[in-house]
């Protein structure tokens, strides 16, 4: 707080009085991020999503490794099990990021959010950053647990190279973070959980399943340029890919960036 004192009718220099303890709050983008972080962890949905993702990863990687052992598949990197589990565990991140956006539209609290942080791009970016950080950390945790589970279930049908394994665990985390950014963009564009989940399930699972089921070079090439198709190439080791890992992650980044821009455009045009 700034005050001005006078002496003999003359204005003295302004004097700054520090705010009372406990009343100072961060502003700007840092404040928006802090607010979104608090809001995310204030509801049980976030915890339930992450626990579900962890459980799904454990079950899937055990099944994946057990099938490889039973069918006497060629030896493969142990991290491939965790990479394969992302096709399902990614939806824990999708639901978490969707709820982070659409719950505010459902309750009407988005109006308060946009009053506190009137710059729309700041709100959008803060939500994307917070969910991406959570998705990266949880994704690496999923992959770490899944790799440990798979190592026992493989029972000798997998190789363990520390460098490759760490690379795959981090790749799963990076992919999950980009899925979170993509989800936030779609959620802002649709503003409804059912709409957002319909788009994301189609894009990340249903459409790739149909394309791979149809087979053929054309459909396979289309799938390779969808988010999960490219992400799968990025996370796996030893599988034939039509492009490098760098190209694969750039394809996923492009999808996430496009969704982010579309969501921001809708937020700016139609507001709350």
TrEMBL record:
The keyword Chloroplast does not apply. This is ABC transporter permease. Residues 1-24 are annotated as: Disordered. Keywords: Membrane, Transmembrane, Transmembrane helix. The chain crosses the membrane at residues 45-66, 78-101, 128-154, 166-189, 196-216, 243-267. The keyword Membrane applies.
């Amino acid at each position: 707080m700034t005050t001005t004192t006078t002496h003999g009718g003359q204005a003295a220099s302004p004097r700054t009085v520090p705010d009372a303890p406990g009343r100072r709050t961060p502003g700007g983008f840092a404040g928006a991020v802090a607010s979104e972080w608090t809001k995310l962890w204030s509801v049980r949905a976030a915890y339930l999503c992450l626990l579900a993702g962890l459980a799904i990863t454990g079950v899937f990687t055990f099944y994946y490794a057990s099938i490889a052992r039973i069918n006497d598949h060629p030896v493969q990197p142990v991290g491939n099990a965790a990479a394969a589990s992302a096709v399902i565990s990614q939806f824990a991140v999708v639901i978490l990021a969707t709820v982070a956006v659409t719950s505010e539209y459902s309750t009407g609290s988005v109006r308060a959010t946009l009053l506190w942080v009137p710059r729309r791009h700041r709100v959008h970016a803060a939500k994307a950053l917070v969910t991406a950080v959570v998705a990266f950390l949880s994704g690496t945790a999923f992959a770490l647990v899944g790799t440990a589970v798979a190592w026992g279930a493989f029972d000798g049908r997998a190789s363990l190279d520390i460098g490759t394994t760490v690379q795959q665990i981090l790749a799963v985390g990076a992919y999950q973070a980009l899925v979170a950014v993509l989800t936030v963009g779609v959620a802002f564009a649709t503003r409804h959980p059912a709409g957002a989940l319909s788009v994301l399930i189609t894009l990340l699972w249903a459409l790739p399943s149909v394309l791979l089921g149809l087979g053929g070079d054309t459909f396979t090439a289309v799938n390779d340029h969808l988010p999960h198709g490219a992400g799968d190439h990025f996370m796996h080791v030893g599988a034939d890919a039509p492009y490098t890992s760098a190209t694969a992650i750039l394809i996923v980044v492009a999808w996430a960036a496009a969704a982010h821009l579309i969501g921001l455009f809708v937020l700016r045009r139609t507001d709350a």
